[in-house]
Amino acid sequence: MENLNDIFNISLDDFKEPEKGGGSRSVFKPDSKGGKEGVYKAVVRFIPWHKDVKKSIMKKWSCWMTNPANNESMMVDCPSTVGKKSVIQDLYWKFKKSDSVAEQKLAENFSRRQKFASLVQIIKDDNNPDNVGKIMVWPYGVKIFNKIQAEIKPEFGDPHNPFDLFEGKPFLVHVTTVAGYNNYDNCRFATEKMAIVIDGAKMEKTAENFEKIRKFLETESPDLGVYDFQDWDDRVDNFVQEVINNSVPGGRAVSSLSSAGSRPAATPQIQSDEFEDMMSSPTPSKPASSLPDIKSSSVNDLDDLGSSSSSFDDELYDLL
User: Fold this and answer.
1) 135: which strand partners?
2) Residue 312 domain flag
3) How many CB atoms are closer than 10 A to CB 20?
4) Distance CA 95, CA 106 (A)
5) What is the mean pLDDT of residues 251-264?
6) Strand pairing of 135-140 and 113-124?
7) Model confidence at 11: pLDDT above 90
């Protein structure tokens, strides 16, 4: 059962990386091709997922696979996401490390990308003004993820929780085109903090507003859960086996597919907090470990190439 009280008691620990050892109408997809003069500008603020604040940043590894026998293609979630043995991951590294050029090329068929998704409220978007005020799902890649992590655990200065409903900073979206791909180098967080806005009003920390926020998030938030790791059913299991059979020499000898897509353990329910504790947002003092090496979430984006140093138009939008 979901605990809506958790949206007022969000810790930075909920969004830090663990130490090592909806429909299209509800999706925010800023594309430079849809912006003015080839630049897509918008202002959003990140919103916690009321069903499980610890999953306000969905993360998973996925692989776009194609059956060479009939060109059927499918995006397949990699079981390595939940710590399970993965034939996709195993075959990729088997061929990637091969001395054979042909096998190294074959590794591309099993290349995974890490994908992310979060809820955002649209604060300003002249490209799609009807979306202003709405909560939408933003599927994004590693570059945006790293910008979020830089706020949560900065190298210098105080940490900032972008998902805090009252202390979160707006995020300035500025998407350009580089070599024909969307580029997010110029996106950044604003300096000023801004509370969540409902019906044009910035919410304050009152009991009345707490209840208003709960209802708003519960009724207006798209289901972020569909962006979580999806267990393999028989159809996916059979599809992966067919891809292997038709693309890997001796592919029919590859086994253990049934266990590769096994269901992960259930996520423990979040314990309830007292109403008086809702307004606190503790800040951890211990830094998290370094981020893992991750890849792009979309072939349309160059967000896996790392941020480059570039100037940003300080007059992008007049936010406040």
Assistant:
1) 121
2) no
3) 8
4) 7
5) 47
6) antiparallel
7) no
Rounded Cα distance, 208 and 7, in Å: 15
Residues with Cβ within 8 Å of 34's Cβ and at least 6 positions away in sequence, in order, are 40, 127
Residue 299 burial (CB count, 10 A): 9
Span 31-59, average pLDDT: 95
Dihedral over Cα of 310, 311, 312, 313: its sign: negative
CATH number at residue 120: 3.90.198.10
For residue 64, give its domain range. Answer: 4-263
**Under 8 Å CB-to-CB from 127, ≥6 apart: which residues?**
30, 34, 35, 36, 40, 41, 42
Q: Please, are residues 31 and 40 in contact by the beta-carbon 8 Å criterion?
A: yes
Q: State the angle between helix axes of 234-247 and 87-96 in degrees (0 to 180), rounded to the nearest 10.
A: 20
Asked if residue 121 belongs to a domain, the reply is yes
By the 8 A CB rule, do 113 and 296 touch? Answer: yes
β-strand pairing of 40-47 with 113-124? antiparallel
Count Cβ atoms below 10 Å from residue 233 Cβ, excluding itself.
10
Structural contact between residues 142 and 227, judged by C-beta atoms closer than 8 angstroms: no
Task: Give tens-digit pLDDT for 145-161.
Answer: 999 999 999 999 999 99
Within a domain: residue 284? no
Nearest to 92 by CA among 113, 75, 112, 107: 107
User: Tell me, what's the pLDDT at 6?
Assistant: 65
In a domain, 316, yes or no: no
Q: What is the pLDDT of residues 76-93, one digit of tens each?
A: 999 999 999 999 999 999
Q: How many domains does the chain have?
A: 1
pLDDT tier, 300 (very low <50, low <70, confident <90, very high otherwise): low
Q: How far apart are CA 167 and CA 146, in angstroms?
A: 20
- Measured CA to CA, the distance from residue 67 to residue 241 in angstroms comes to 10
Contacts 24+ apart (CB under 8 A), 106-110: 106/247, 106/248, 109/65, 109/66, 109/243, 109/247, 110/63, 110/65
